[in-house]
Input
Amino acid sequence: MHIRLSIQTLKKLVAGSMTAAFFFSTVGSPFAEANFWAERHAARVKTLPTPGPDDVRHLLSTISWPKESLNPVLGAYRLPSRLGTVVETHTAQPGAPVLLHLQDAHGVYGAQYNASIVLEGLFQAGWSGTEAVPVYQEGGAGPANIDWLSAFPFDDIKERVAHAHLRRGDLTGEEYRTIVASSGTFRLYGVETVDLFKKNLAARHETAQARAAAAVHIGKIQNRLARIKAKIYPPALLSLDKPFQAYTNQTLSFVEYVQDLATLAPGSFRAGDYPNLDALLLLTKRETEMDPRRLAEERDLLVRKMVGTLSLEAGKDLVAKAIDVREGRLKQGDFYQALLGVADKLKRQGQDLPTRELRNYVGYLNLADSLQHDQLLAEAEQLRSRLLEKFSRNDHVWRLVTTDRRVALERLLWKQEMTPDQYAAFKQEGPLDWVEIEKYVMEQETRLGFLTQDLSARLNSNSNLTPTLSVQPGG
Output
């Protein structure tokens, strides 16, 4: 499924991020930092009023200003694991549309429902196009017009019926979301070449049983490896493996994963080699230190002082900057820097206003803009690889590390859940020799006494069984 969003509304996004957006509301509205999706809904309903001539007070009191918020793009890396995780990002070319690729599990209710929630969040995140949000979906060819379904007037009935069909697998996540949303909110387009799609689908069906069996078998080997790792890995390596497994299994967000890596890798170890990871950690720290109440108070006081001080032209210039932020032509940090410029001007006129929180916020926004999102995932993997080497104290441990990593890659291949980077790594190293893997695992289990323990446990279990004697009646 592919979604093509207008660059004018989502220019701040990095292509490939699942979700991110500006927050907007009128001056004086409260700072919002709670729900990742709901806090952006106000962005869709604001319009620019027509100011009266020479009426700066009216101009400044009715315009929709950019709203102070946590960095929107970083929200993608805090995406709840139950919805999914960011697997790669690429920086868009200036002026190019933003394309978000959602990879989901076909035919799995939970995955499809999560995809529908992501779609809903993207729509609430600030889409302001005049037309429906285009969604390009797999498994179809040409436009799929289901407006007649979404136009059904009774929302509660429509939602219940659509949800029932989603559970049965009759609808995909994007089809479900299009039906339950207002008519015309989304527009579905099938992107398949029919002949190629049928061939690919046939191959998938033919290999489904073998892939499922392979995934189960590899999963059992991973369980055996986990038992071996618990005995062989030193404590530091176990501490590294735990968050990685949680992140891989989508029970830990990317931000939490990076924080765990940083705990194991002091600043001297990172030493400038991971500028984007360090920036992410600093941004997260600054977010916890931000005082939303004082930030709003400083902003509101500054706006009140502008009235009667700014000329109409200066007011119009500030309003134009606010519009530029909303339409993606100006960075939010630049807008707030312009506000601070007004505060500096007022200070020269004898009005010394508190601006500490505003200045900290501008620094936060500027740091967020400097983040190279296409490097974040690569730096995280590089840091993990270095930590693996650091904590692998001998060749015996290192072989277990590499075996565990390659077995995990192979299982992702059979489950068809690889990212492009993972597939590139797999191609470089080639497929595993499973006879050798089985031999290696058994050698480690024998050395650790696991096989003897397992045999003894089975014998004890059998000895506790009470034999049953069947006596046939007769003379």
About this structure: The CA atoms of residues 16 and 100 lie 5 Å apart. The two ends are 76 Å apart (CA to CA). Strands lie at 2-5, 24-26, 64-66, 98-101, 133-137, 141-144, 186-191.
